[in-house]
Amino acid sequence: MNDVLDFFQGVSRDISFVAVIDILLVSFLFYKLFQLIRGGRAFQMVVGTLLLVLLFFASQWAQLTTLNWLLRNTLAYIGFAVIVLYQQELRRGLANLGRAPLFRFLNPARRKGTLDEIAFSVLTLAGRHMGAILVLERDIGLRSYIEGGIRLDAVVTYDLLLSIFNPKSPLHDGAVIVQGDRVAAAACFLPISINPQLSRELGTRHRAAIGITEDTDAVAIVVSEETGLVSFMEDGAILSGLDSEQLRTKLREALGQDDKATRTIHAASKDGSARATERPI
Q1: Cβ-contact 192, 133 below 8 angstroms
Q2: How many CB atoms lie within 10 A of CB 228?
Q3: What is the pLDDT of residue 42?
Q4: What structural domains and CATH numbers belong to the chain?
Q5: Which of 68, 119, 130, 196 is most buried, most CB within 10 Å of its CB?
């Protein structure tokens, strides 16, 4: 028993406060890395990379000269391969590091009535089978996508959104990007998702909305021109067939807003036309 106590006392003397901080920081980085790759496509790529490394050491132990030479020359370029293969995950991981609460004040505020305006307009567009795609910026900036569209910098309103997505409008073909309570730009081009697991029935509009949520932390709303269904995209996942309450709930959850000060929007009649008991504030 005394030997055990002496051991732990010796360890406690050798470990300094700086060493403890160092261990905690490394543990935190590995934890965030695991969170980043867990459940995603990067996890399979990481497993494949680890298998190559293990095979390299196994070939050295078993004296498999040819295989060892091949792996040794291949692994020399592993750094470049990591950048190419994991570029999307690395970009999102670095962006997540900048999402600390300390920097939240740099993001534009979204007034409470904005989500009601968005939900009401989306339901109206769905009832009229008018295709639309809206992207709501969160912590990661979307300036590169905004610069590729038509800048508006206008307050989000029901009438403005319906005017933009009117089929006769020159701005309807593309995405609307919302920053805070303002429409930053319209007719924006978005990256198309290349996820092979997506349904083949999804069109370009849905794949573009999924693509922007894969590259950034933004959320997207899509109205199908063919079916009038409303879809919500977040973190590369899609949820289709939302009604008014479901849409508003997803928006509040994604954007961290309470619903106590907002007014209830009811779903439309059976023919799919969207109406509200009260206009948004």
Answers
A1: no
A2: 19
A3: 60
A4: 2-104 (no CATH), 109-255 (3.40.1700.10)
A5: 119
- Percent of the chain past pLDDT 70, that is, above it, reads 68
CA distance 134 to 177: 6
Q: Is the pLDDT of residue 111 over 60?
A: no
CA 179/CA 156 separation, integer angstroms: 9
pLDDT, tens only, 250-277:
988 888 754 443 333 333 333 333 333 3
